[in-house]
Structures are given as C-alpha cells and as structure tokens.
Amino acid sequence: MPFDLGPGTLAVLACGLLVAAFVRGYSGFGFSAIFIAFAALMTNPLPLIPVVFACEVIMTAFQARGIRGHIDWIRVGWLLLGAAVALPFSVGIMLSAGEATVRLVISGIVLVMACILLSGWRLKRRMGGLGYGGVGLVSGACNSAGVGGLPVAAFLSAQPLEAAVFRATMIIYLTGLDLMTLPWLWAGGIVTRDTGLAILLAFPFLGVGVWLGGKRFLSASPKTFRKAAIMLMLVLSGLGLLRVLIS
Fold first, then answer.
1. How high is the pLDDT of residue 137?
2. What is this structure's pTM?
C-alpha cells in the first residue's frame, strides 16, 4: 500500500478523492483544497501533495476538449508569472516544516480563502496584469501546501466572469501551477515510487468524478453548487484546525 496506509484509510481517502474530483469537474477548482484538507484529518498530507498535483494534470486531459474555447490566456499568463517567483521559496519552507505545522497551514489557508469566497467579495475596479501577477504570487506561496488555487478562485470570483470562462481559466491555471510545482517537490525528495502507485490507484476515481461533475455543470446553477463546495471546505478546514489544536 502506498505511504504505508492501511486498506481502511485508503478506502476512505478514495471516497474523498471521488468527491473532490466531482467538484473539480463541475467548478474547475476546489479539488486540491478539498482532498488535502480531508486527508489532513487522517494522515500526514505532505506526501499526498504531489499525488494531488499529478491528478490535477490528469483531470485537465479529461476536460481539455470542453474548455478550449473559454480560456482567458492573458490572465493565465500573468498568474503563472507571479506564481513562478514564489514557488521556490514557499516549497522550501513547507518541506522543512513538521507534520503539525503542515496540517495547521493547510487548514488555515483553506479556512481563510473559503471565508473570502463565501463572503461574496467584489473588486471595485478592473485589475491589470500586475494585479494578476500579485495574485499569482500569493497563489504560488499557498501551492506549497497544495491549495494554491483558492486565492485565484477568490480573485476571479470577485469579477464579472462567465461561469464557463471562470471554470476553464481555473483549470488551465491550476494545471500550469502544478506542473511548475512538481519539479520542486521532486527536488525536495517527496516524489517517490509510492507517489506513482497512488496516482495509478486514483485514476479511475478521477475519471468518474470529473465525468459526473462535467455533466452536472451543464444542468445546475454554478452559484448554488460553488456555495456548497465552499461550505465543504469550511467544514473540513475547521475540523483540521480542531484536530491540530487538541492533539
């Protein structure tokens, strides 16, 4: 079993993975935050972060055909530029942290970002490229904990974007962000043979979850579903913080 996890723990994590993949298939974000916050309740989440990033890339391959015409490439470019600056430093800090610190950081970031998303915060003026680069910087800093998509989701949600553009832009940005982060995690020694085995085990759950989420996207209200996903993040992050505080 990968990462010395028992069959029961793997089965529960597989259920969490399926739910997170469904959310990603529907909304374009939330997969990493939901699964990592869920995993932090059961085990050390740090070794699972490269697994999650590889899963993000795989899910983009599943979704690529349906999102091509909706991607805002200019936003994606500025965001990735900012993230590239922060990643080497943030990954180094995270790899040197203890398990309790990693759990605390992940739960704290998810909680704060979910609260911002739930608040309905809106930008009062249009942001330029440097603004997007700054958001990318924050996102890159958060992605060492596996939750770099949430600052960007909060930022894009504060602007008048069509649901299809929001979803497609988030999917492509997260893919680029994860592809940039994986080499740093490899250099840090947490990408191992167990990582590859976990990705193989995750593959069928990703396919089913993304397919179901994509079908739901065509028939449900994006606003209603996104609120439900954010509430799930709040619950998971709150439980994660509680576990750290009482342990």
1. 95
2. 0.86
